[in-house]
Amino acid sequence: MRILVAGVDGYLGWALAQHLTQRGHTVAGADNYLRRDWVAELGSQSATPIRRMTERIEAFRENFGKNLQFFRGDLADHDLVMNIFRHFRPEAIVHLGEMPSAPYSMIDAGHAIFTHKNNLFGTLNILFAMRDVCPESHLVKLGTMGEYGTPDVDIPEGFFTIEYRGRTDTLPFPRQANSWYHQTKVHDSNNVMMACRLWKLRSTDIMQGVVYGTRIDAMGDDERLLTRFDFDQCFGTAINRFCAQAAIGAPLTLYGQGGQKRGFIPLRDSVQCLTIAVENPPKGGEYRVFNQFEHVYNVTELAAKVKKAGDEIGLNVQIRNVENPRQEQEQHYYNPDHKHLLKLGYRPTRDMLGELRIMLKDLTICRGRIEARREALFPDIRWDGSRRPVEYLDEPVTEIEPTVQVPFRALARKQS
Ligand code: USQ
Questions:
Q1: Is 144 annotated as catalytic?
Q2: What is the DSSP string of 252-278?
Q3: Is 214 an annotated catalytic residue?
Q4: Which of 50, 134, 304, 319 lies at a C-alpha separation of 20 to 30 Å from 90?
Q5: What CATH number does the domain containing 92 carry?
Q6: Whether 256 contacts 317, CB under 8 Å
Q7: What's the pTM?
Q8: For the NAD-dependent epimerase/dehydratase domain, which residue ranges apply (predicted)?
Q9: Does any domain span residue 319?
């Protein structure tokens, strides 16, 4: 199948392009490297030393014996998107090319408006290009579990049947986003759903949980194939940040009471699920929703798991509660369905501790790069628009270990 990965230079995109190619698909990618700029804006860098796109493409060819066609440019540019579609004529599009951070979108009006323009314009351009050039193609659109918020009832996969004043209908489940970023995904979902209804396009909207992990098998022992790994307050997700903190001996920052529950999924499972969605397209006009996560945990449970895996290798991990810079529920009910992908053949890894051991091993080797941007680990972006470092809510207990720089080559050894 000819598959366009929008956002191919990102954390998920670079891994997915490899996995799809390994499965025999012909993959093209589009990107404008904005993720690299956003992370630099926050004074941070990827913990893994990622390569320039030219080197990435060379490594791709050498490892998979296939070219990755690469289109550099902004998905918010309508002409560019039309040209990509006319040239590559994708049968499937995996749209990962959006600004993915809740805290980044909450910095100020400029960041909120940029997030809306970037995310909504890109998706609209893809929808119009599908209509005008490839109406049979399938859009796999990355949404987020955060679209639903944390309601006090079970969460279905996109739709639920409701009886109201004696009449019954199947309707979209209410979306209650909690950041400007998550809100862009809600708007996207509405736009994609309408395009499927009006233009008979087909789409799978992926409500993905929080992703964690440093690698997938396709990366093998070639360090040029490694994907990025962010640990800053905006682009690092909770487990990834906890592992980065553990690797340099900094305390894990548990926001507020730590009872916040989310669905989590390892990177290797995320690419497996996206591939399943691509290889099992819906029929024309169908808009379907998959909730994509492996398991629900609260963040205190996660921190405890990272501590267990870290202590096993002598990291002496400390966990500390800090003020929550976000406005979110810290104790709540959370029970989302996730059956569709399992029915289509998703085989969950179900070994979080094993994955954490791999991550901690990788990140211990990269600890010099994390240490060099240590300040970026500590949150100061607040949901009320102010920018003040959070305070610890408990007594200090940790001592910082000295950092040891290990040559990165060692990371390339395949993990067992
Ligand atoms: N948290 C901490 N300590 C930290 C970082 C986060 O306790 O150092 C807490 C947060 O308060 C939150 C939870 O962990 O309650 C998850 O935070 P996160 O930053 O891992 O996840 P989130 O902001 O929700 O966003 C991430 C991705 C986003 C994706 C989303 C899926 O950045 O692109 O859409 O996960 S979901 O969370 O299901 O909406």
A1: yes
A2: EEEETTSB-EEEEEEHHHHHHHHHHHH
A3: no
A4: 50
A5: 3.40.50.720
A6: no
A7: 0.95
A8: 3-291
A9: no
